[in-house]
Write a structure and sequence with these properties.
- The strands form 2 sheets. Strands 3-2-1-4-7-8-9 form a 7-stranded mixed beta sheet, sandwiched between helices. A 5-stranded antiparallel beta sheet has the order 6-5-10-12-11.
- It is 29% helix and 24% strand.
- The longest helix is centred in the first third of the chain and has 20 residues.
- By secondary structure, it is of the alpha/beta class.
- The chain binds zinc ion.
- Zinc ion binds next to loops.
């Protein structure tokens, strides 16, 4: 009973942050393929690969179950892997909503979701033991730096969510991806579904075990809403993108707004905040 007032405060603060947004308690679930249990080879990441689709969908649906059990009123799932052509409304959790297609520079975070989570997430480029580790493009991008720090999707998405006041509460993926999130959001709940021995060598949980773990982790993470602070990075913000040799900068790169060309394959954008830097980078 001693702890009851504490509990009430926790519940109230979670409810308050959802209320802040003047909307339902909504989890925005970012999904990818390379961090899914049982996916360890490049050929498995083809969006049409039937086994990968089942493995990914199973993990997503387990996460949705967990979020709903933990109090979420709505879960929006973004099909974030390779051109948004991997998921289907035929197989997605009946209570989830599926977001298909490319997102704009704000990544839809201007909707001020109650929380953001990742399923199937891989680590940033150049991480030892990161299964198929890359930052946005394994063929096109060698390295990406946010305010001088090497980053991948985990940091960029967390910073964009944080810019709009939304915390990251949960991630499932390989061990390297989990460590990467914990570096910036130590309190986030993580489900490690596989361990990288090398880029294409992994020890994975079974699909059943991965789903059970993800369901539990997602449910638990809901209680962190209100206590996990949104991850923010101080402005002004620089975003430096180092492309691969075969993807050198086009001849007109110098004329891009807010950009500084550092060498034949490296460009740096400067914005007042992460949203502006990302918008300059994404402007074509
Ligand atoms: Zn990715």
């Amino acid at each position: 009973m001693r702890f009851l007032p504490y509990l009430v405060i926790l519940i109230c603060s979670a409810a308050a942050s959802a209320q802040n947004a003047g909307q339902k308690l909504t989890v925005f679930l970012i999904t990818d393929a390379e961090g899914v249990g049982g996916v360890c080879r490049q050929d498995q990441t083809d969006p049409k690969d039937q086994e990968m689709r089942q493995l990914l969908t199973g993990e997503i649906n387990a996460a949705v179950d967990g979020f709903l059990a933990g109090g979420a009123e709505e879960v929006i799932v973004w099909d974030g892997h390779d051109g948004s052509q991997t998921l289907s409304t035929l197989t997605i959790h009946p209570k989830a909503r599926l977001l298909m297609g490319a997102l704009g520079p704000s990544m839809l975070m201007d909707r001020h979701f109650s929380a953001v989570a990742y399923v199937g997430q891989h680590s940033k480029a150049n991480v030892r033991g990161g299964i198929m580790a890359h930052s946005y493009s394994s063929l096109g991008i060698q390295n990406m730096l946010l305010n001088g720090k090497p980053v991948g999707e985990i940091d960029v998405i967390a910073a964009m969510a944080g810019h709009f006041g939304t915390p990251v509460i949960m991630l499932s993926g390989d061990r390297a991806a989990a460590s990467e999130l914990h570096e910036i959001v130590p309190q986030a709940e993580v489900a490690v579904v596989k361990e990288g021995i090398g880029r294409y060598t992994c020890i994975s949980l079974s699909a059943t075990a991965a789903r059970d773990l993800i369901r539990d982790t997602a449910r638990r993470s809901m209680s962190k809403i209100g206590s996990i602070k949104p991850y923010t990075i101080p402005g002004p913000v620089t975003l430096q993108v180092e492309y691969t040799t075969r993807n050198s900068l086009p001849i007109e790169a110098e004329s891009r707004a807010g950009a500084e060309v550092l060498d034949d394959r490296t460009i740096r954008f400067r914005g007042k905040d992460v949203l502006e830097a990302w918008r300059l980078y994404r402007a074509r």
